[in-house]
Fold this sequence. Notes:
18% strand; five-stranded parallel β-sheet; Rossmann fold; alpha/beta; 37% helix; 7 strands; single chain; two-stranded antiparallel ribbon; 220 residues
Amino acid sequence: MPLTFDDLLARARSLAEHGGRAVLGLAGSPGAGKTTLAEHLVRALNGPGEPWVAHVPMDGFHLADVELDRLGLRDRKGAPETFDAAGYAALLRRLREEPDGDIVYAPGFERMLEQPVAGAIPVLPAVRLTVTEGNYLLLGTGAWSRVRPQLDEVWFCELDEGERVRRLVARHEEFGKNHEEALAWVLRSDQRNAELVAATRNRADLVVPWSALPRVATET
């Protein structure tokens, strides 16, 4: 039977049934639909009541451009070495272990500025499940190896390669690049990262095809 969005909801919901706090990771190559899936899961699970599921993307741990310039990594922005992986792993641990009653603040990422923003995402005490998403959740090198132990499950989002590249180019265009610049960046930097991420697919607990998302999500 094909995997459905209802199947995903049931599996995500079960992660928090032990009574503690759980963290679900969504991995996948750039443009594969991680954020779309995360947003739909969180919205559907929370429903109309008090929110008990939070969305905390990995993107808030991008190094700022001024630090990338210092390191000589500005043209590699988005690669594993351009994130604070140790800081991300530490936040995931806090999300699992912070005592009830305390708010955990996570950084966000402002797409128009292409910069991280500290303290942008409050994770409230009522949250029992955090959905986090990013490219490198299954990477086993360096500080990234600290991430996987903090995740109850990791799902790998998979999309047809041609469609993934088309969506990624469109995203870069939306945030200011012309078509030629967007395509060049995708084929140079993003594609290198995508190949690295694809090699981690077999470490996932579940592979999620784009067809498993709600129809409205696949049409946007």
